[in-house]
Amino acid sequence: MPACLVIADDLTGANATGVLLQKEGFRTYTVLNPERGRDESLSDATCLVIPTDSRSIPSQEAYDRVYHALELLKGEDIRFYSKRIDSTLRGNLGSETDAFLEALGNEYIAVCVPCFPTSGRVLCGGHLLVNGIPLDRTEVALDPKAPIHTSDAAHLFRDQSKYPVDSLTLNDIALGQEHLTKRFEEMKKDGVRIVICDAITQSDIDLIADALVASSIPFISVDPGVFTAAVGKRLIPNSTKRASGKVLCAIGSVNGVARRQVHELLKKMNVHEVILTITKVIGTSKEREEEIKRVTKEILDSDESYDVLALIGDGIDPAKVISFEEYSKRLGVSEEELSILINTAFAEVVYNVLKERRDINAIYTTGGDITAAVNDIIGTTGLYLNDEVVPLAGYGLILGGEFAGLQFISKGGMVGNDDAMVTCVKYLQEHMS
Fold it and tell me: What is the DSSP letter of 79?
């Protein structure tokens, strides 16, 4: 059985949510008939998404379809449930959420985060804004099948559901995770069954997910898919993730931009982090050799559950950034020679790991010098460039040499926002099929 069950009110929405889950590394199948949801052919699914085609039908019929699907497919193996709703709040929001609450039991609450920030849908002060315009002032309000007369999400749920509804605002979110967790627990104790949450950024959505997971309250995610994906990352064990290959990262940049990007990578992805001590690889020949062997072994011995293997220079810690001028004088070498010693140490580790770990299908490097050193040692004859993932971060395939066909992204160390490294590594994961 899957770890996640999503029920959507139409096929397009089902597929949209499925794509978001797939991007998080989950093997996701859309199943057109809930009667087929337990077929043996679906046994490897992490997430099942079931469309009920119920957006424009009478509310009782919509309730019946959702309830029937849940009765067929609910089970102890499912870690969480999601009710996928339209990003503009059309359809039978209340009756379909009621079906979840009644099929799963009184211990559950429904948490609605009706937001899709990258598509311009945010909830502010309880009102859904589409590209900054209140929902009831957009063309959606004139939908012939499911017109909308208000942008107030809580009002829509109260109008359609039999259960008590309450809201969390941006003021609550600003007070942090512990406050949100406490508020969820208080609402549950007070008999609230449906909670509507403001959110205007992905960070808001992530914070709500963290607070709910910390509360241990059984809940249903009700949203257009972004909140569901955030919850999935937190509740589904890594062992259920798609095993299409691993990404090896070589990160030697020491500036503040790279530091923040590494922080986000370690926080948001399943990473085995190995630190390369720079003072050792520019030290004696013995120190250098032993350090390269140590970090190579640590990467090779990493647990299979890790999706990303990251070799990171210890200069990512500001306290350990070395002075090239000082070490150049101390060791009697030029600053350029010091740089070469560092870059080739990264490259040697990458080469040693690639020789042994044939489950690595992609590499990510920061900085032109490290990228060049890696390609030199692995015998690359050329690079096939296929896309720009973020500005100044190219994606493509390695041509020639022992590792021809290996996918790569190289990015400047000072390039991109805090999530740029996460974006690049996820892009590689998505393209490793």
Answer: -
